[in-house]
């Protein structure tokens, strides 16, 4: 089995090029993943070469130079100073990776600067929503999951929404759909035969401060259980992640990411796309860009986890065909 892995560049002004140089070399040096992995890096060769020269990573550049698919050779950049030009280069690398001719199975996306992207794409929200739109999916019907280093698999009912807008999306139907999608993902992506799912409440102390949201969540949990899904809750979000479940469903971004970002090596996973998409759980880190101190372990973990997830999915598909 050959797994086609595509890596986008991220914003050249951030740490994306640095962590690509370091993580790909580490990935190739590490334990064999079984089968063949074809890596394609959708980026500006000039940006990667300049970063390699500046950070004394020329040996790492030599490892990856034949993997680079040239997307924007002439981009000018300064570390820590994102511009409209660097943002366009970052988006060009994503668009190129999504072209059918490359048949990407796994997409790894270093961070971009959303504010810079919005200078020419005013409605841009993030990678998750952009990829969902590319594949013709409604932005609220896909899901984003965070994976922490201690294997806490967490999915969100809502992603990038202002807090005051979240309650409107906490409906029994929306929560039920996300429970079912998480159950599907845990089976297909992670090979868990009968996953147990812990579901967060929306309000502090669950029903005590509810204005109907937690009652809707309970209704969704009960409907999922009537469909033979092992869903539990709702539980107070401040203690949910200390429980032992195969997966967790949070209602909004900060319920999950406050927990996840306190741990090293976390990943973002967009669940429900035709491809596997992951990214390290950190931003562009503009304050340390160009200083050769960026932590690339999340990027390496994304590469390894992406290949593993894709193979789990293939095994599941093969089993379905035989069954």
Please, could you describe this protein's structure?
The two termini are 21 Å apart. This protein has an 11-stranded mixed beta sheet with strand order 3-2-1-4-11-10-5-6-9-7-8, sandwiched between helices. α9 (213-226) links the parallel β7 and β8 (230-235). It has 323 residues and is an alpha/beta fold. The protein has 12 helices and 11 strands. The chain is globular. It has 2 domains: 1-140 and 271-323, 3-Layer(aba) Sandwich (Isopropylmalate Dehydrogenase), CATH 3.40.718; 151-262, Cobalt-precorrin-4 Transmethylase, domain 1 (3-Layer(aba) Sandwich).
Which architecture of the largest domain per CATH?
A: 3-Layer(aba) Sandwich
Total number of domains:
2
State which percent range the strand residues make up. Answer: 15-25%
Structural class per helix/strand content? alpha/beta
Q: Output the CATH topology of the largest domain.
A: Isopropylmalate Dehydrogenase
Largest sheet data? 11 strands, mixed
Radius of gyration: 20 Å
- What is the end-to-end distance? 21 Å
Per CATH, the class of the largest domain reads Alpha Beta
**Unreliable residue stretches:** none
Query: What spatial form do the alpha-carbon principal axes imply?
Result: globular
State the gist of this model.
This protein has 323 residues and is α/β, with parallel strands linked by helices. The chain has helices spanning 16-29, 45-54, 58-64, 84-97, 114-117, 127-134, 163-166, 172-188, 213-226, 237-240, 253-260, 297-322, and strands at 2-8, 36-43, 68-70, 106-108, 143-147, 153-156, 196-200, 230-235, 247-250, 267-271, 276-280.
